[in-house]
Every structure is written in C-alpha cells, then in structure tokens.
Amino acid sequence: MKRLRRLSCRLPLLCLLALPLFAASQPASSATPSPDEIVGLDDGFDPGANGTIDVLVPQADGKLLVAGGFDYIGGGQALGFARLLVDGRIDRTFDVDLNGPVKTLLPLDDGRVLIAGYFSKVDGVDRYGFAALQADGRLDQDYDLGLGNAPVAFMRQPDGSILLVGVGTGLMRLDAQGRPDADFVPFFVTEGWYGSVYSAATQADGRIVVAGYFEPADGSTPLAFVRLNPDGSWDAGFQQPSDEDAQMLAFSVHKLVTLGDGSLVGAGPFELPDHGSGKQTGLLKLHRDGGLDADFRPDPNAAVKDIAAQPDGRLLVAGAFSRIDGTQVLRVARLNADGHLDAGFAANASAPTNALAVLADGKIALGGEFTRVGGQPRQRIARLEADGRVETAFIAGTDPVYPGVDATPRCLVQLPDQQLLIGCGFTYVGTTRAGMARLRADGSIDPGFVAPTIEPGYSNAVEVISPQPDGKFLIGGRFTKVNGVARPGLARLNADGSLDASFAPPNWAGSGEPWARAVALQPDGRIVVSGLRVVTDPLEHQPTMTRLNADGSIDAGFHVPALDNPVEPLQLLPDGKILIAGYFGRIDGTPRRGIARLNADGTLDAAFASPFQDSGVVNILQPLPGGRILIAGYLPIDGESQWLARLNADGSLDRSFRPAMPDEAIQSLVVGADGAIALGGKFTRVGGETRRNLARLRPDGSLDPDYRPAVDEWITAMAQLADGKLLVAGDFTGIDGLTRSHLARLPAAGGASRRLDVDAAGTLRWTLGGASPIATEARFDVSLDGSTWTPLGQGQPTANGWRYAAGAALPRDTGFWLRAQGRTGGREGATGNGSVSLLESTLFARLQTAAVYMLTPQAGVGGRLDPAKPVAVYAGEVRRFEVVAEPGYTVEGVSGCGGSLAGNVYTTAPAGADCTVTASFRDDGGDRLFADGFDAAAR
C-alpha cells in the first residue's frame, strides 16, 4: 500500500509560473470508493477518481498517465499521479513518491517519463519542479538538468526531439533521450529580445510557433506570436495579428496545437476587440504562415482548458463552456477545421472538463470535475468512442430482459465507423427479430439498418458477409431470394440493409442450386466466390469456384479450377494471387492437400506446395505480415494430428513455430499487430494448461499465462476490433461471471494503435501496432472535402503496415484528406467462423508545392559534420555541411547526396530525395592527450 502525503507547494515561484497552463486542482474527496465502485469486470472503461483530473497523457503501449487532485483511482490509492492500464485499472507496478502535484508530463521512447509541477522532492531526493521517472515510476537519479524553474509544457517535435516550454530562456530543446540540445538557441536570447513563452506547437516542416510576449531589442512593436526555424533562428516571414489584437493576446494563449494543413489553433482567456463581426473569445486560428483567420469563430461562452487536434483535422475542445458556435454544448465539443460545431459529437459533461487526449486507437480520454458524461455516470474520468459516445460495457441488444442473441452469429463484421454488423445463425437480438443486425459500440441496435428478408428463411441461410469500401456489403449462402427478388446464393446489400438492385448475378454455379461458402472482394471490384452446386437428382454437392465482375456478370477470363472437394476459406494476397483452403486433395488433377495458391487468373500456382500429403483439412487461413501464413484445422504433422501451424510463403512448414496446442479443434482465431494469437473453440487445455474455450498465445506460439477469461461454453467466431478488444460468439451464456448470451466483447489485452502519415514526397505509410488487428490488404484514397473520395491505389505491405507512393497524385499547397482502409480477419468463408472487418484511418494534411527532403549527416570516428543533425530542405535546394576533423585526424572522404567537397565545406546536389552525407576521417598518427583505447573508453 502506498503511503499518502499531503499535497503541498513549497516553491511559490514555481507555482506562480505554472498557473497559466491549467486551473488548480480541487482537493480530493474524503470519501474513498470501494474497488467494486471503481472497476467492474466488464469490457467498459470506468476507473473513477475521487478528485479532479487535470492531466491526461497516453503512453505508446496504450496505458494512460493521469495527474490531478485525487488520491484514489482505478481501484487503488495514488496521490495525485497514476498510470492506468488499458481496461482502466490502476497499474500497481507504477509507484511514484512526490511531495507535490504534477502539472505536465511527457513519456519518452525508452519508457521513462518527464514530469514538471509544484514538487520539490521525488523519492525523497531534491528535484525542484522537474524530474525524470523510470518506467516503474521511481526517480531516475542519473537525470538532473538542474533547471532553475519548471516547464509549463512539453512538446514533441516530428524528429522526436522535445521542447520544454516556459523554462529558463523560455524555450529549451532536448533530444529524444532527454539530453539538452546545445545547437538549439532561440533567436530572442541571442538577439537581445525580451521573450516570455506560454505555449508552442511544431509544424510539419519542423518550424516552431510559440505564443507569449516577445519584445524586440530595438523597442519596436511587441509580438504575441513568433516562428522559429528548426535551429532556433527567427522566421521573420510569419505574419502577425494587428497591434491591437497582439496586445490583447500577449500572455493569453495557453495552449497551441497544429492542424494537418499547418494552421494553428490557440486557446486561452482572451477577448479580441470587435472588428465588425463581434468579439472573438477563447479560441482563435492562425493561418499556416501567420495572421488570424477571421472566419474561425467558435466563441465559447466560458473558459477553454484544453484542446487537441485529431488526425482527420477536427478539433477537440474541453473546458467550462456551455455554448460554442452558437449551440448549447456542455463542456466538451468537437469542431470541424473551419471552427463550426461537429453536431454528431455530443458527449456533454456535468461539470468542467480540464484535460483530453486523442488515443492511438482513435478514442478520446476525458478528465475533469464531472460526475456524468453523455448521460452515463463517470467519476471525473471517461473514455469516449470516436463518435463521442461514452465507452460502456457491450450487451447485444441492450435489452434489460432479453440481453444478447438467441443463437450464435457466425459473421462478426466491424465497419469503419466502429459499428458492428452481425449475422449468419441467429434469429433474435434482444427482443428484435433480425437474423442480421447492425449494433452500436454499446451493443444497442441501430434502427437505421433493416435486415433483409432471406428465402428460404432458416437462420443459417446466410453464411458469409463481406463488406465493401463504399459501405455496401456482399452476402453469400444457400438462398434463392432476397427481399422477394431472385438472388442465387449471392447478393449485394446497401448500407441500410436494402437490396442493391444494380448487382444481379446469374446462377454462377452453372447448374443446380448455388451455395456460396466463401466470398472475397478484389480491389478492382471483382468477386471471387467458391462453394457448391446442389444437384437434386441424384442428390449431390459438387464443388465449384468462379469470379464475377463488379456488376455480377461472370468473368470469362477466370479459369475455373477443377476441385474434388469444396474451397471453404479463401484469401486474396497483396500480389493478386488467391490463397485457398478446405477439404480438397487435388486441383486441376494436381495433388494439393488442404491448401493451395492460385494465380490471379485462377490457374494453379506451382510455386506453392501443400505440406500435407494423404490427409489434412485447413479450415482457417490468416496471412501474416512478411508472407507467412497461420493455418488451423486437422493437420497431420510428423505423424501426429495437430490443430495449428504456420507456413512459410511457399507453403512449407515453418518449423520454428511450435505453438502450445489445444486438446480439441480450433473453431476461430485472430491475430493482433503485435503478433499475439487468440484461439477460440471447444477445448479445455492448451499446452497442458487449463484454458476453457479461449486462450491467447504469444507471437512465438507459447501460452500467455496472464490471459485467462472464464468462458462457460465453446466459441465459434471471433473478431479482433479496432481498439484491440475481442468480439466472441458461441454457445456460452456467461463470461467472467457476467451474463452474456452467445455474443460478448472482452477487454483488450493491450493498447491498439494505428497511424497514417504522408511525407513531403507524397509517400503514404499506414502503421498498425499493439493489439490492433492486422490488415490483409489496404487501399488508399484522397479527398478535397473530407467526404467525396478518389481512389489512389493498393498499398504494398511493410513490416508493420502498408505503404503507397502517391507522389504527384496528391494536391499541393492546399489542405486535403487521406484515407487508408484495410480488410482484417483470418478468412472469407463459412466453416472457420473467422470474420472480415474494415479498418480505417483518416489524415488531414497539406504538402508544399516543392517537396521537402531530409538530409542526414553521418560522421565516423575522428570528426564531425556541422550541422550534425538531420536538416529539411525543399526540392532543388542545396545544403552545405562544414567538415571538422578532431586533433590527430584528417578528412579521408565525404560522400552522399550527390555533393562535392571544397576545402572543408561539402555542398550537396539539388535535393531530390531523402539522403545521407557520410564523412570519414583518417588517423594521421599525430600526438593526442590519450591513447586510442583509453580515449574511446573515456567517451
């Protein structure tokens, strides 16, 4: 149990300096809630705190650092500073001992955390307002910058370096490891200005905009904003507000953030004069090159305490206001980039909100003084879904009498807006007869979706659902009509569930009754479908496979392979080839037991050979990053029957993968971006350890000892959701002691992350990490208005996501939106009961007319290059590096970036790509103070 100390501020000057950033914390309540009141066992997020939350900062692993006026949070004691796990429980491995509150903080890449505030001791050691904590919360005693006062904010720059705002000279820079950057000196220090910095933001090109009060040495008009080049020099081209406005804004912009197009939004307790359209209060926007945006007028009616920019260009605002953009909105709001209210976001807090944070999975953390958010009880801390709804426990149908579904849905699809489409095997959800339903994140039924009428009407008539990027989706199964219209086993539905009349496939099986068992959508809109044709006289089920054009017509250019048994799962690979699996033993007369790969035209790919010979059935396919394939089924390996294996890209067994094996068959599996594998089925032991129906393996196949959900019956379908949570379906009625009928959502085992970026050359990168699902394919789109999208192309796989070189296809010198969308899930068929979903990320960006490239200096032993850090240059621009040899060394050579050396200056060729300048030095045998070995050791 952590001992409690009274919070105090023993450094009055420090306290005064930090006051503008946030309002002071309210004292903690004397009543301490019980653990059951703080943390439940369900999959919602409700840590609860008995005092105010003032600071929220997410870590890269999904954990959340929280500071404020509490002494109890997440089910445990913590005096004003804590770390929460992804599910909201307090992280008991994080132990902090401070004698005062934390007011700002920043996690470092190596796991340490920089903190600043009103404290003077950490772990009993003198640290006046600034310190570094190790990953476990204890003081890093080797780190002490000896600052004279505490920073009021930390700011991460694009290259990983860190700005300390409001400390010493007003602005200080550290490298990514926290070491002072001696090469960065703000111009207002060297040129004799008087400068006071209150907030700062970095633009995409590395330039830094700071807000505060800046008085030139020559006595000319003071400035409220200045922009610094990456080296700290003054960018005099940054436009200023009028002198009258600058006077009102001096010392008054306490938070500054950058939007994707380079414009900036500031918040603070200011009121600008009426210039003909009313007074402007609380929020302002600066154009990319400075100057106030007169059209940005949200005008909140009370204080804004925190703001954050979403990747898609929208702006989150927290504070004490009750109106913004002329509309009643209580204390938290989302604005579009133009300052108008996003009316679809309605969180509404019962009391002021002090802090917010955009999380790596797209959700939003909210802290403050409230006790209710969005109508839900939340004690001063909440997590919001991307649409602003409070994250709550998931109960299908959310009916108080009949929660859940009446039978097991085998199709579980998450849509890009995070809603869930369920189908394939049930009749009722809650009290609604559906057979197919769209559920919100809390499990409530979306009335905007009306399930189609399927004939014949048995519950498993639909066996596969495959979503399309345009919001429509394909359904396949054993049916003849949809909404009374003839559809032979395959149909396309609109987003609202109505039949898409433009897609009218013929009997794609050729003869007999078509029965679709697997469906896959190609990037060009064509559809690969496999299944059976049922012949009634005599009764036979004959395997078949074909490809349809986007309008449903048969693609005559696709070779229909001859199969001796049906293909059940199939997956499209990034190179256009088709991975198929099932019960078959021969394809076009060639032996291929259980698994095979087809070329894009349907012919057999001879380069991929099944590792199984006389027997073997593959029910589940999961392509992995790097080309390997995870498979499940009946797998005869080395004379034994196994349920799980991993193949190399050519189909051979990957014998380095030795997974903990279940004692019964695997019905479904999902894989996270971190490589962890969740298994569902009807088993009782995995790797000799008790695991009933659900288990989790580490990336190397070993059993995760800490993952032990209690599931009372077998699991037949699973979907890894965008936030890392696991949606499971099966015959169960309870999980972890909670009543859940046939459908449940489990908390994430770790944080999920996804990030979309574009560089100056127009190359897009979509990175998926942590517990995020992996994507088996990805496509990229561009938009000029954020709603009408133009396809760019298909991404190429990378080690941790996808890449697409858009180049000149992207607009320049204007704001635009990018979208990455990928299909996730282990299969696109019926028997393996895996599910296919769509994962999406959106980015608001702006590119210069001239691309910007990074030139990276690299010097060997015996000298250095100046500048010594990467520099950004525009396309066609040259850069000069001074080459400096240490005593006893001479320059041996300099190369890279197409440049040439003249004297001790190396000049690059005009920039056309990122590149590296490399300098090497030769030992000339001259006298040095130390011998080489000792000198190196001393370093």
Automatic annotation (TrEMBL):
* Top-rank lineage group of the source organism: Bacteria
Matching entries from InterPro entries are given as: Delta_60_rpt, Quinoprotein_ADH-like_sf
The keyword RNA-binding appears for this protein: no
Renumbered to this chain, the signal peptide range is: 1-30
UniProtKB keywords: Signal
The protein in question is named: Delta-60 repeat domain-containing protein
Q: Which organism does this record belong to?
A: Dokdonella ginsengisoli
Q: What is the lineage of its organism?
A: Bacteria, Pseudomonadati, Pseudomonadota, Gammaproteobacteria, Lysobacterales
